[in-house]
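Protein entry
_____________
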Amino acid sequence: MGEQISAVQDEFRFHSPAAKDGIFMIRALEDEALLAAARDNASSEHAELMAALGTATNPTWVTSSCAETAYDRGLIDGQELDWLCK
């Protein structure tokens, strides 16, 4: 876990602490929940992330971060990633 925290801190060193927390939450999601949050911003999974991250969080950031994580896990292809992040 310590390596994961360090990697995220390095990767997102210019992001706010809240953004880093969001990345940890998103990366901790199970595959099905991650896909639901990426594909449907009206899903309960997306709503739970938004509630946990607060009203200052951009819903589009949550969707695109979930989509990027799903892509990194091999759950979606590049075409779907592009479509979700547009």
Summary: The two ends are 32 Å apart (CA to CA). The CA atoms of residues 31 and 70 lie 7 Å apart. The chain has a mean pLDDT of 90. The chain has six helices and no strands.
